[in-house]
Specification:
- The protein contains six helices and 13 strands.
- With 282 residues, the chain is an alpha/beta fold.
- The protein has two domains: 39 residues, no CATH class; 227 residues, Rossmann fold, CATH 3.40.50.
């Protein structure tokens, strides 16, 4: 019999423990399909890189969700569209930014963990090795305002995508060497930032009072839809990735405060510029 591996999954109160057992050389059927992790790195489906003539020496990519910032940069000729990713539906645009020292890709990414993983898969197949993501997140902490830079160093895996890249576990963390470089960059820029744990979920309209309170109790400061997937794919594929956030709307058990967060153009542009500086340091 092959050696048996055990993966621990701590519950929110860290008192109960569920053990998922799996043989190293084959998948064992579990009670829930999401727990049936396969460590085999060879997939039947693969990225077709030959359809992208822009396969190049560009090794860094800034992934963002700030369409307003990207449009402003394009119309002011600071970036130009290099190509579109060939997927079903609306094709995401990949832009190129020439920084002087080197060129980087800028990707305006669709929402959600599956798309985050898909974008990383495609770009890494084209040779990109280092990613910084910048976006907004709901905050679970009333004291966190939109002026604070948030470096996500861990994510609670309450989505599905990360379970296809890593064994079942409650959290996934940023690579330590990446965390150190990000901290050094933020300190060099004299930024007011904090390192946080975030809650990644697939269901933005199922953030119920009890679940919000549960995530708060285990240390989550924000809620968003992609971070766990980014860090899982990065670990699986040996990539460098960091996620920078700013606190947008407020999600707490008393209710939802939108806080007009999409109108924070100053913060969004600042975070984008900061992400450019950070990705060049990875």
């Amino acid at each position: 019999m092959t050696e048996e591996h055990k993966y621990d999954m701590l519950t929110a109160n860290s008192e109960e423990r569920v053990v998922v057992k799996k043989h190293s050389n084959k998948i064992e059927k579990q009670s829930y399909p999401i727990l049936e992790y396969d460590p085999n790195k060879a997939s039947i489906t693969k990225v077709k890189t030959d359809i992208y003539p822009q396969r190049s020496k560009i090794k860094r990519c800034l992934i963002t969700y700030f369409q307003d910032v990207v449009v402003k940069m394009e119309t002011s000729y600071k970036i130009f569209q290099a190509f579109k990713l060939r997927i079903e539906g609306k094709r995401p645009e990949v832009y190129q930014l020439n920084t002087g020292s080197e060129s980087i890709f800028i990707l305006l990414c669709p929402l959600g963990a599956p798309q985050a993983a898909r974008m990383m898969e495609i770009l890494s197949a084209m040779g990109v090795e280092k990613f910084v993501v910048c976006g907004g997140a709901g905050t679970l902490d009333d004291s966190i305002t939109g002026e604070k830079i948030l470096l996500a160093t861990a994510a609670v895996r309450d989505e599905g995508t990360s379970y296809h890249y890593l064994p079942p576990a409650r959290e996934v963390a940023i690579k330590e060497s990446v965390r150190q470089k990000m901290v050094q960059c933020l300190q060099a820029e004299k930024e007011d930032f904090i390192e946080i744990k975030t809650w990644t979920t697939d269901a933005s309209f199922r953030e119920t009072p009890d679940k919000v309170e549960m995530r708060r109790q285990e240390g989550c400061v924000t809620v968003e839809m992609e971070c766990a997937a980014y860090y899982a794919v990065a670990e699986f594929k040996g990539l460098d990735c960091a996620v920078l956030l700013y606190a947008g709307d407020l999600v707490h058990k008393e209710g939802w405060d939108y806080r007009n967060w999409h109108a924070r153009n100053d913060m969004r542009e600042h975070l984008f510029d900061l992400a450019v500086k950070c990705v060049l340091k990875l």
